[in-house]
C-alpha cells in the first residue's frame, strides 16, 4: 500500500477515513490493523490522518504508537521570535517551526524590516514556509507581507474571515496614510490581502495541532491568538504587550472593549501557558517566559479603565493624562523620546485628553464590538 498523499479524494485516503472506525474498536481488534497502519497510510505525512490520530483517547493512541517499532507520535514544535524595531513599531513576529514545515505569525509594517525578516526565517527554519497569518486588522501586522510571499512562494497569507473583511475596508486608506507618514519607499504600493482561513486549528505535517483562539479583544476587537498546548506556548498578538512598553488604547471607544480586553487576559490565565509572546515588545531576551508581560498588560488596562475611562470625557488634558501614566508606571517614563512606546502614550493622551487630537477610525469599532462581545464567555450571556 502506498502512503497517503493527503488528498481528500485519493484512493489511499479512503483508507484513512476508514480509520475513524478504529476509535470504537477494542484492543484486540486494533491489533489486527496494526500492520495496516505501519504500512504507511496512517502516517504523519497526511494531515487528516494526523488529525484523526491526535483525537484518539490517550489509551488507544498509546496502544497504536506501541504497536509498531515506527514512532507515530507528533513531533515537538518550537517557536522563534523576532522584534522589528524602529518604524516597524517594535512588532513581534513568531515563527512556528515543525519537522516538515513552518508558519509565520505577523509580518512588519514596513518593507525594510520585512526584508530583514527573510534571512532570519531561513536561518531558523530549514523546512518550507507554508503559511503566514495576521493576528488582526492593524496594518503593522501584515502590510509588508508581499516581501515574505515573494521570497517564499509556497506560502499563502491568511487571517480569519472577519479580519479579512476588515482589512478590505481599511487597506486603501491605511496604505495612503502610512505612505505619507513613512515614505513611499517603506510601504507597499499594493499590499497583499489575506485569504480567509476557515478553521479554528491547523497542523503541520507530523506535528502537534495549533489552535486559533478568537475572536478576542486586545488593543482592538477581532483578534486571534495562536495556542500550542503541547509546548504551552501562546502567540497572543496585541492582546498582550511587552512589560517595557506603553500600549495602544485609542481604539477603546467604548467601556465594553476595555472590559472585553480584561476578559481576554482572564482567558489567557486559564490556559496555563508557560510562554506568552506579545504583539509588541522592546526585547525578547527573557524568551517571553512567565506572566510578566500579561501582568503588565492587565495592570495598564485596569489603570486606564479606573483612572481615565471611568471619568467624564475631557476631564483631563493630554498633559495630565501623560503625567498620570508616568506616575503609575515610572519605569516607562524613562523610555527615550521618539520611541514607539513614547509615541503610543502621546497618541493615547491626545485621543482621550481635553482639546487633544482624536484618532479617526476607518471601522465602526463599537458596532464591531457589539456584534460578538464576549460570545465565547457564557457567563456574559
Automatic annotation (TrEMBL):
Residues 90-280 form the Metallo-beta-lactamase domain. InterPro entries: Metallo-B-lactamas (IPR001279), NDM-1-like (IPR050855), RibonucZ/Hydroxyglut_hydro (IPR036866). This is Metallo-beta-lactamase domain-containing protein. It comes from Fusarium oxysporum (strain Fo5176) (Fusarium vascular wilt).
Amino acid at each position: 500500500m502506498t502512503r497517503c498523499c493527503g488528498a481528500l479524494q485519493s484512493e489511499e485516503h479512503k483508507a484513512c477515513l476508514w480509520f475513524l472506525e478504529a476509535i470504537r474498536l477494542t484492543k484486540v481488534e486494533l491489533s489486527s490493523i496494526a500492520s495496516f497502519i505501519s504500512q504507511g497510510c496512517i502516517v504523519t505525512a497526511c494531515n487528516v490522518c494526523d488529525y484523526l490520530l491526535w483525537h484518539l483517547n490517550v489509551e488507544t493512541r498509546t496502544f497504536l504508537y506501541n504497536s509498531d517499532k515506527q514512532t507515530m507520535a507528533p513531533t515537538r514544535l518550537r517557536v522563534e521570535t523576532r522584534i522589528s524595531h524602529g518604524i516597524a513599531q517594535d512588532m513581534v513576529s513568531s515563527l512556528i517551526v515543525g519537522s516538515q514545515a513552518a508558519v509565520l505569525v505577523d509580518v512588519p509594517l514596513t518593507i525594510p524590516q520585512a526584508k530583514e525578516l527573510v534571512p532570519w526565517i531561513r536561518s531558523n527554519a530549514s523546512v518550507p514556509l507554508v503559511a503566514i497569518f495576521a493576528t488582526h486588522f492593524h496594518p503593522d501586522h501584515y502590510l509588508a507581507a508581499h516581501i515574505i510571499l515573494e521570497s517564499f512562494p509556497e506560502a499563502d497569507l491568511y487571517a480569519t474571515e472577519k479580519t479579512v473583511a476588515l482589512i478590505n475596508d481599511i487597506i486603501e486608506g491605511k496604505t495612503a496614510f502610512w505612505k505619507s507618514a513613512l515614505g513611499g519607499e517603506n510601504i507597499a504600493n499594493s499590499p497583499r490581502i489575506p485569504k480567509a482561513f476557515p478553521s479554528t486549528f491547523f497542523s503541520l505535517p507530523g506535528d502537534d495541532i495549533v489552535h486559533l483562539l478568537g475572536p478576542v479583544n486586545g488593543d482592538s476587537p477581532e483578534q486571534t491568538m495562536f495556542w500550542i498546548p503541547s509546548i504551552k506556548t501562546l502567540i497572543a498578538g496585541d492582546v498582550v504587550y511587552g512589560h517595557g512598553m506603553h500600549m495602544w488604547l485609542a481604539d477603546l471607544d467604548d467601556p465594553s472593549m476595555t472590559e472585553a480586553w480584561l476578559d481576554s487576559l482572564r482567558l489567557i490565565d486559564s490556559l496555563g501557558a508557560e510562554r506568552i509572546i506579545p504583539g509588541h515588545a522592546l526585547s525578547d531576551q527573557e524568551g517571553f517566559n512567565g506572566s510578566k508581560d500579561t501582568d503588565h498588560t492587565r495592570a495598564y488596562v485596569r489603570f486606564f479603565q479606573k483612572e481615565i475611562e471611568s471619568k467624564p470625557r475631557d476631564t483631563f488634558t493630554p498633559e495630565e493624562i501623560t503625567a498620570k501614566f508616568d506616575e503609575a508606571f515610572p519605569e516607562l517614563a524613562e523610555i527615550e523620546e521618539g520611541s514607539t512606546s513614547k509615541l503610543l502614550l502621546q497618541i493615547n493622551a491626545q485621543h482621550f485628553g481635553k482639546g487633544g487630537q482624536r484618532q479617526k477610525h476607518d471601522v465602526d469599532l463599537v458596532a464591531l464590538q457589539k456584534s460578538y462581545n464576549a460570545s465565547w464567555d457564557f457567563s456574559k450571556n
